[in-house]
Design goal:
Length: 231
């Protein structure tokens, strides 16, 4: 049985990943800041481990809890929007730090902590859920500055992870879910979580070594870091 670890698995895309991988017979380990309140995740049949992606000590504790267990797939899904009206001039410095800690540094530290587990699998894959909001050509206004900047930086982290991990037998890339109707988008979007996750799972299943460090659309196409295309 293959094992997937999903960060931020209590709602939205993370919860839907847990549902679909469990339904497909995978061993699912979902993380939650408050496992006692993770009723929807528990209902999927997933195992639940505590994790605050913005806290390096919590990430280290996750690594210790997972010692010796192989991970076939790591999905760095946890993320925050921050103040959607926040601009480079108005956003609070504490908010900037929190958004970057979770969206940018989090995937790097979680991957580092779980790298020994990934290496125990035959063909391990790690992904960060990227966003076209982190494509510089798509940033057209002042709002959501911390989120957009954190996602652009997260793409840079993905490039670094992709190159470094390729030499260690782990395929790592960013994955674009599209504009999905979740709590983070206040229910706005083109896709339901179930549809987006089904497409992303199909892309993951078809992943090839050449994707290392790239941004992959849910359809399996390469999404340029410096340009865009329409759905």
């Amino acid at each position: 049985m293959k094992t997937v670890v999903i960060t931020g698995a209590t709602r939205g895309l993370g919860l839907e990943f847990a549902r679909q991988y469990r339904a497909d017979g995978w061993h699912v380990i979902g993380t939650a800041r408050d496992p006692d309140a993770a009723d929807a995740l528990r209902a999927t049949g997933a195992d639940i481990l505590p994790l605050d992606v913005g806290d390096p000590a919590s990430i280290s504790a996750l690594g210790a809890a997972m010692a010796g267990r192989a991970i076939d797939l790591l999905i760095n899904n946890a993320g925050v929007m921050g103040d959607p009206a926040g601009t480079a001039l108005s956003a609070d410095p504490v908010e900037w730090a929190n958004v970057f800690a979770i969206n940018t540094l989090g995937p790097a530290l979680v991957t580092r902590a779980l790298l020994p587990n990934l290496k125990l699998a035959d063909t391990p894959i790690g992904v960060t859920l990227g966003s076209q909001a982190g494509i510089l050509a798509k940033i057209s206004g002042p709002v959501r500055a911390p989120y957009c900047a954190s996602k652009a930086a997260a793409h840079a982290v993905t490039i670094s992870l992709g190159h470094e991990l390729a030499g260690q037998g782990v395929l790592y890339f960013a994955l674009r879910p599209g504009w999905v109707r979740t709590d983070m988008t206040d229910g706005a979007g083109h896709l339901d979580p179930a549809e987006s996750v089904a497409q992303m799972r199909s892309a993951i299943a078809l992943a090839v070594p050449d994707w290392a460090g790239l941004f992959i659309d849910r359809t399996g196409r390469i999404y340029p870091f410096v340009d865009t295309f329409k759905d």
